[in-house]
Structure formats: structure tokens, C-alpha cells
Design a protein that fits this description.
The protein is of the alpha/beta class and 450 residues long. The chain folds into 3 domains: 213 residues, Rossmann fold, CATH 3.40.50; 71 residues, Glutamyl-trna Synthetase, Domain 2 (Glutamyl-tRNA Synthetase, domain 2), CATH 1.10.1160.10; 145 residues, Arc Repressor Mutant, subunit A (Orthogonal Bundle). It is 46% helix and 12% strand. It has 19 helices and 13 strands. Helix 15 crosses helix 17. The protein binds glutamic acid (GLU). The site of glutamic acid (GLU) has 8 residues, from strand 10.
Length: 450
């Protein structure tokens, strides 16, 4: 039987890292087994579901590259894939329960008659969890008494207003869509006995369940949308690569057999398994996430680096199609963790005049013989003919020798004079990209500042 997994978001907010991680694990599991990954929209809560939220979720999944084989925009033969459009199917399933005498009306709502027996969830991550729903009873919050009170364990599957309840539609759809593996957040583990009772009522073998432990914020509480790193669209905006985010999300609750932190998508597909899902809660670490991104940046092909950087270069007003951009990106890629940090490193190559950092300039000025150093440097570089990295270095050495100092003594004033500050990309390749004329012009201008 082919593996069929699904991601079943409720479109009531942003795509959160917890939800995206659930989507990723389902996607990886399906891809690993050559199965199908289905996107199902759980939008039965008409008041809270919005099309804006759905669009954000779709955009987020698309950006991450978690493509779905069936679902919105793609279709499939088990659709429609929005629960709000599946009411006729739910009505049919409800009739089956009515005919079997397994439901009854209670003040306008329909309740499912919970059997007095034990249900055991054989969870791939959490192990066996056994519950007797009838004996365990149910509790609800009484607003008047302001406390929890005993409630009817027969749970509601249809509201008095006609709307179907999550447990019922979730199970009906997993049956109708032929879902073989349900991988979802641990917050749903306590719902699963109810789901097992419904599967049994329909005479259907339940899918395999794997509940993923929670993702906590650095202070150890459940990650919320206000925490840094919580929202997927912000990753894109702040300069993360989608595969790096997938890589980091994979590590948030799963580990492979080897001691490995950096994975390509192909490697993740090859190695992902349910047995590697960790049993304890994971803790979100933004610094590690950025580190993973930096590792992915180092591995991008030049063409992919250019494509990924493009929006950030455009936003900074840099000439994306300039011939020197690919070389400039190579100078930046090892120095940054995020794509958004690239423009600041390379912009000095593409502007008329560098922005002089006052404290760097002061540092040069405070050195004895600064003006002589810069003019010796200028003279040394003036002699350079072919303007290659090696020839530039030789020019700097010649300037240094004329003053009787080491090459290193000229590097600092040269960097500040040409690039404007002590930080940034490697000096010699930047000089090479700038061209002789610009470098000499900047050094002359700098001499006047000293
Ligand atoms: N709509 C549910 C949620 O967003 C999905 C539960 C499930 O995956 O079964 O939590």
C-alpha cells in the first residue's frame, strides 16, 4: 500500500514553525517512501478561518518547496480538499452512525456514543497510550461556576448550528482520503482515543500515528507567534534559504543515525524516518538556525547564490546585472549568515564613494605617518599594470618597502581609504573588482581627509 500523509492546517493565522515542521515531516515521510503528500484545509470553523490566512500558509509551503500531490490548486480524486466544501460527505458518514444507533441528539447537538472500553493509541513516537473515554469521563469549563465540571463523555460531533466538529471531520477525511500515516503535534495525542473510537465505529483500520513533541522557545515554554523565529514568512524576508529552514526544522525534533547537522533536501528525504523523531520537546535556537543557513549559503552554486540574493540586492539598490556581482557575492558568502547581510558587505564596490566610518578614519589618523603611508601605497599601486590580485599585492609590498615597513602596515589604511571601514570583504579582491582608476581616486580623496 502506498504511503499517504497529509498536512491539515486550520487557516486561522500565520504559518508557524510548529505547523511547518509538521508539514515537513509528513512531506519527508511521503517522499522517502515514494508516496503522496496531501494538503487538506481544515476550515470548518467559519468564524476564525480566513482566505488571507490560507494564502499565507500556501505561500509558506510553496516557499519551503513542500509541494503537495493533492490539495488546493492541484486537485486530486479525493477532493474537494477544503473541509468547508465537504459537508455532503460528512452528512453521509453521519447517516451511517445514525443507522448504527451510535449517535443521539442532545439539545440540538449530535453526540457520539462513546463505547465503554479501552482504546490504545500505538504511537510511533510516544509509545502505547491506553484510555477508556467513558470511564475517564469528560470535563468542561462552566463559565457561571468559573470552574471545570464533570461533563458527558459522549462527545459532540455536530453543533446545534449544523457545523461539524473537528474530531469527526478529521477522521472522516483521513478515511476518505486514504491517509496511512498521521504525523502531527503532540497536542493532538489526547484527541486520538476519540479518533480511534470513530475509526472503529466506521469499521476502518486507523492509520499509523506519530505525535511529534512540542517545540519550545528558549525559555522553555510553548513557542508562540511572538517569539523570534516563529513565523515562516519572516524567514524569507530576513534572508534565510528555504532548504536551510527545512534543515533546521528537521533537526527540531528529529535526528539521523549519524552525527550530522547539515542536510540537503535529498539527504533528508533519504534519511528521514519516524524512529529518529525525538521523544522529548525540542528547544528553538535562533543562533543555530542562522548557523545552518550560513552552512547552506556556503554550498550554493554561484548561479543559485545570485538568484537567492537578487531580491536583497535589488532592495539595496545594487546593480544586480553588473558583471562584477557574481565575484562580489563570492567575497560575501563566507562572511554572512543571512542573505540580507550581503549588500552591506559588497556595496562599497558599486558606489561612487565609500561611506567613511568616522571611528575607522580616526584610527588611521591617529597612527604616526598615516599620510605618508597612504601616499606610498598610492604610488606602489600606480605602478601596477595588469591589476590582478597578485600584482596588486606586489604593488602594496612595493609601497611598503619604499617606507621600510611591512606590507601589513599598509593594509589597514588601504582598507579604510578604499572601503571606508575596517570591516567588510577581503581587501585585495575588492581592489581588484574596483579597478585601478577607482582605487587610486579613492586613495587620493582619502589623503585629503588625513
Ligand atoms: N487542523 C488541525 C490542526 O491544525 C490538524 C490536526 C491533525 O493534523 O490531525 O491542528
Amino acid at each position: 500500500m502506498s504511503v499517504r500523509t497529509r498536512f491539515a492546517p486550520s487557516p486561522t493565522g500565520f504559518l508557524h514553525i510548529g505547523g511547518a515542521r509538521t508539514a515537513l515531516y509528513n512531506w519527508l515521510y511521503a517522499r522517502h517512501h515514494g508516496g503522496q503528500f496531501i494538503l487538506r484545509v481544515e476550515d470548518t470553523d467559519a468564524e476564525r478561518s480566513t482566505t488571507e490566512s490560507m494564502q499565507i500558509i500556501l505561500d509558506g509551503l510553496e516557499w519551503l518547496g513542500l509541494d503537495w500531490d493533492e490539495g488546493p490548486g492541484v486537485g486530486g480524486d479525493r477532493g474537494p480538499y477544503n473541509q468547508s466544501e465537504r459537508v455532503a460527505i460528512y452528512d453521509r458518514y453521519l447517516s451511517r452512525l445514525e443507522e448504527a444507533g451510535l449517535v443521539y441528539e442532545d439539545e440540538g447537538a449530535i453526540r457520539f456514543r462513546v463505547p465503554d472500553k479501552e482504546f490504545t493509541v500505538h504511537d510511533e513516537v510516544c509509545g502505547d497510550v491506553t484510555t477508556n473515554l467513558k470511564a475517564a469521563g469528560s470535563r468542561r469549563y462552566d463559565a457561571e461556576l468559573k470552574k471545570e465540571v464533570e461533563a458527558n463523555p459522549d462527545f459532540v460531533i455536530k453543533r446545534p448550528n449544523g457545523g461539524y466538529i473537528f474530531h469527526f471531520v478529521n477522521v472522516v477525511d483521513d478515511i476518505e482520503m486514504g491517509i496511512t500515516h498521521v504525523i502531527r503535534g503532540e497536542d493532538h495525542l489526547s484527541n486520538t482515543p476519540k479518533h480511534l473510537a470513530l475509526f472503529e465505529a466506521f469499521g476502518v483500520e486507523p492509520p499509523v500515528f506519530a505525535h511529534i513533541p512540542l517545540n519550545l522557545n528558549p525559555s522553555g515554554t510553548k513557542m508562540s507567534k511572538r517569539d523570534q523565529g516563529a513565523l515562516i514568512h519572516e524567514y524569507r524576508e530576513s534572508g534565510f534559504l528555504a532548504d536551510a529552514v527545512n534543515n533546521y526544522m528537521a533537526l527540531l525534533g528529529w535526528s539521523g543515525k549519524e552525527d550530522q547537522d547539515v542536510f540537503s533536501m535529498e539527504e533528508l528525504i533519504g534519511k528521514f524516518d519516524l524512529s529518529g523523531i525525538t521523544k522529548s520537546n525540542s528547544k528553538f535556537d535562533f543562533e543555530k538556525c542562522k548557523w545552518v543557513n550560513a552552512e547552506h549559503l556556503k554550498q550554493l552554486s554561484p548561479a543559485a547564490l545570485l538568484e537567492a540574493s537578487r531580491p536583497f540586492l535589488e532592495k539595496a539598490g545594487l546593480p544586480v546585472d553588473d558583471d562584477r556581482i557574481p565575484a562580489a557575492l563570492e567575497l560575501a558568502r563566507d562572511r554572512v549568515q543571512l542573505l540580507s547581510e550581503i549588500p552591506a558587505i559588497i556595496e562599497t564596490i558599486f558606489v561612487d564613494l565609500p561611506t567613511y566610518d568616522p571611528s575607522s578614519v580616526e584610527k588611521v589618523k591617529s597612527r604616526e605617518g598615516a599620510a605618508e603611508a597612504v601616499s606610498a601605497l598610492r604610488e606602489g599601486l600606480e605602478q601596477v599594470e595588469d591589476w590582478s590580485d597578485d600584482a596588486i599585492k606586489a604593488g602594496i609590498v612595493a609601497g611598503a618597502e619604499s617606507l621600510g615597513v611591512k606590507m601589513g602596515a599598509l593594509m589597514f589604511p588601504c582598507r579604510v581609504g578604499v572601503m571606508g571601514s575596517t570591516s567588510g570583504a577581503d581587501l585585495v579582491p575588492v581592489l581588484s573588482l574596483l579597478g585601478k582608476e577607482v582605487v587610486l581616486r579613492r586613495l587620493s580623496g582619502f589623503s585629503e581627509m588625513l
